[in-house]
Structures are given as structure tokens and as C-alpha cells.
């Protein structure tokens, strides 16, 4: 009797899961991939759109039946996941499953910060976590002739912990002489004590040193309470305030409503086993931004595409084994790396093992052209693979 595996979300994790499953399962088993549009973008490409190194039309990821032969692609919005009934309710009907992989990512919720939506609507703020947002923010930076850019992390967790600081470097490079001579200043604000805190203080301090070396301000332990768009001012929980002329914000990230509907996680992020990515029920897994994976130091694994891709292959083998096939067991190792562009054709690289005990073992390697080229190759391989 044939079996059905349902994969929700066609980001890095979902695409890799579906592709690997098709290689592992017999042809009579159905693999169904559900996504609201099958039109995505890599996070690293968004930052290059912000910098002006990529056009929006160059970085779309559009998976089709040609790039995923043998996988059923269903364009639909997931409304509710019925774990006990083993069914997913969408705006195009109900789909039953024998095994479920949740790779629905994270959503942006600007409304969680009072005044932030107004600032975005008024044009005094922009964000770089969507393709349109990155392109619009590039134009805003280009038009700014003087003043201050505030790069604000409005809530944690968020996708790609290095991204806000990378954005600061890239905007400084875009500004050129306007930044070099102090006509436009850039300051970063985060609720954390250091950048990328999960990677440890050594990495965070090294990144702060890089920011200061470029003349970019770093302001830790700044939790936003309100954005005043009329006065172009940030107001923080500690009673302080900071003016800005342009706000580049990382909006609060929230789990999808569909992920929350599972009841598997208290706030909607789905807890998983660190090594197998299995949820608390034996026929469901969650990967990438949708999952919360606890580390030895008590912090969660960062939300990053490099982890989602590795987790997808682990989960595909786990699903095949669960369905009774002779698939070799794979475990998530926690190895990963991310790049921090410095805007001059170079990038730093943070790499190590995040599952190490008692804390992640991560090192930040200094900027080089080689690391930038590694990142370019990573983007090209992904675009070439899925845009067949």
C-alpha cells in the first residue's frame, strides 16, 4: 500500500526534504510539497539586493515539476494542521498524510512593535527581509544625503543572526563618501549583549570590533518599546531614546499560524530533538525557521538556511526509516557556517559546531575575498539547482 509524505513549505528546508525523499522512497509513494506560491529567495540574496549588487528579478527561486520530478507540487495556503487526525487543511482542500515535515519558516510581524507599521508606511523605515523590502530600502539609502541610519533588531529570535550587522556594513559601502566623511552615520541597536550571542562572546566581541573599525556604532541591551514616526525617534524600555533619519529594521519574527495550530509548541515554534528533528509525535518533524532546537548552553539554534538544508537530509532519512524502509540513519551534527559581508568584496566567516557542549564551538574568521566568493558560489548553486 502506498504511503503519503506531506512537506509544508518550499524554502531551503522543504525543497531539500522533498528532493531527498524522492530519492529514498519507491515511486508508488506520494511526496506532496505544499507552498503558497513556489516563489522564494535566499536570505543572502536579499542582502545583495539591499546593496544593489542584485536585481530582484535575478534572485527568485521558482521550483517546478522539472526541478522536482516525481514530487507533487500543490499551490495552497496552509490554514490548520490536525496532528491527531493526520490531515492538513488548506484553502484548496484537506490533505491526509502518513508522515509530515513542517518547514513553514517564520513570518514578520511589524505590528508587534507600537508605531513600527506607521513608520514603514510613512517611508521613514524599511526592512530587508523580503525582496520588495530590500529593493525599497536600497533606494532609501541611495536618496539619504545626510543624517543617521539606525539598524534596529526589534525582537528575537530572527532569521540569520549576522544579517543586521551585515546590512550595516553593506549600507556603509553603498553610501561611499557620505559615510566616510560622516555626512551619514550608521548605528546598530540590539536587545542582546553582543551580536550573534549563541556563537559565544569571542565571536560577538570580534564582530563588534569589526563594526567599530568601520565607524559603525554598536548599542547593546536596547529593547524597543515604540517607534515614533512623527519625531523619527526610537524609544526603548530603559527610558532612553535615539533619533534617526532612516530606520532599517529587523521586524519581530513569529511562527506561522499553521505551525501554532499544531499545538506542538507553546508559542508556535515547534520543539524538536536536536539530532533527529522529530517533534513530540512519532510521524512529524520540523526543520529550519519553524523549529526550535535547544543547545547545550540553553539557547536555541540560530534560524539560518545552512542549518535547514542539513536538517532536511536528516529528516528525509528519518521519514523513510519511520515508513519501514531500509534507509541509513542520519543525525544532525550542528556543523554550520555563515558569512558577514563587509561591503568591499570581502566577507568574514563564522563557522563551527553549534551542538558542542557545554556551548557552541564557533570561530569568526577575518574578512577575505575567498569567503565572499564562497558565498557567491553558494547562491549560484542554489539558483541553478531550483530554477531548472
Automatic annotation (TrEMBL):
Named from the GO MF annotations, one term is: oxidoreductase activity
Q: Name one Pfam family in it.
A: Pyr_redox_2
Coiled-coil stretches:
none
| Residue span, FAD/NAD(P)-binding domain | 4-312
> Mind telling me which SUPFAM superfamilies this protein's record contains?
FAD/NAD(P)-binding domain
Name of protein:
Dehydrogenase
Amino acid at each position: 500500500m502506498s504511503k503519503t509524505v506531506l512537506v509544508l513549505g518550499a524554502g531551503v528546508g522543504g525543497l531539500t526534504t522533498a528532493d531527498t525523499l524522492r530519492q529514498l522512497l519507491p515511486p508508488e509513494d506520494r511526496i506532496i510539497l505544499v507552498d503558497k506560491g513556489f516563489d522564494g529567495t535566499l536570505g543572502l540574496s536579499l542582502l545583495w539586493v539591499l546593496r544593489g549588487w542584485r536585481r530582484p528579478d535575478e534572485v527568485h527561486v521558482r521550483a517546478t515539476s522539472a526541478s522536482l520530478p516525481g514530487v507533487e507540487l500543490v499551490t495552497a495556503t496552509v490554514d490548520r494542521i490536525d496532528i491527531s487526525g493526520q490531515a492538513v487543511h488548506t484553502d484548496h482542500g484537506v490533505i491526509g498524510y502518513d508522515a509530515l515535515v513542517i518547514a513553514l519558516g517564520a513570518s514578520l510581524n511589524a505590528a508587534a512593535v507600537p508605531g513600527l507599521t506607521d513608520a514603514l508606511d510613512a517611508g521613514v523605515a524599511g526592512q530587508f527581509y523580503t525582496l520588495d523590502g530590500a529593493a525599497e530600502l536600497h533606494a532609501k539609502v541611495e536618496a539619504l544625503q545626510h543624517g543617521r541610519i539606525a539598524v534596529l533588531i526589534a525582537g528575537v529570535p530572527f532569521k540569520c543572526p549576522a544579517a543586521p550587522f551585515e546590512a550595516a556594513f553593506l549600507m556603509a559601502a553603498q553610501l561611499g563618501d557620505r559615510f566616510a566623511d560622516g555626512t551619514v552615520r550608521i548605528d546598530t541597536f540590539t536587545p542582546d549583549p553582543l551580536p550573534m550571542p549563541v556563537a559565544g562572546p569571542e565571536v560577538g566581541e570580534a564582530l563588534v570590533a569589526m563594526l567599530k573599525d568601520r565607524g559603525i556604532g554598536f548599542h547593546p541591551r536596547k529593547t524597543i518599546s515604540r517607534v515614533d514616526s512623527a519625531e523619527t525617534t526610537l524609544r526603548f524600555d530603559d527610558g532612553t531614546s535615539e533619533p534617526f533619519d532612516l530606520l532599517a529594521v529587523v521586524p519581530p519574527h513569529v511562527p506561522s499560524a499553521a505551525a501554532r495550530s499544531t499545538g506542538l509548541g507553546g508559542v508556535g515554534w515547534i520543539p524538536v530533538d536536536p539530532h533527529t528533528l522529530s517533534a513530540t509525535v512519532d510521524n512529524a518533524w520540523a526543520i529550519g525557521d519553524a523549529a526550535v532546537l535547544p543547545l547545550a548552553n540553553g539557547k536555541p539554534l540560530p534560524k539560518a538556511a545552512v542549518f535547514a538544508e542539513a536538517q532536511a537530509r536528516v529528516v528525509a532519512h528519518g521519514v523513510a526509516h519511520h515508513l519501514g524502509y531500509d534507509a541509513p540513519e542520519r543525525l544532525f551534527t550542528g556543523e554550520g557556517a555563515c558569512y558577514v559581508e563587509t561591503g568591499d568584496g570581502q566577507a568574514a566567516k563564522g563557522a563551527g559546531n553549534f551542538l558542542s557542549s557545554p556551548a557552541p564551538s564557533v570561530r569568526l574568521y577575518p574578512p577575505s575575498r575567498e569567503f565572499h566568493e564562497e558565498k557567491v558560489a553558494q547562491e549560484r548553486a542554489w539558483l541553478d539547482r531550483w530554477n531548472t
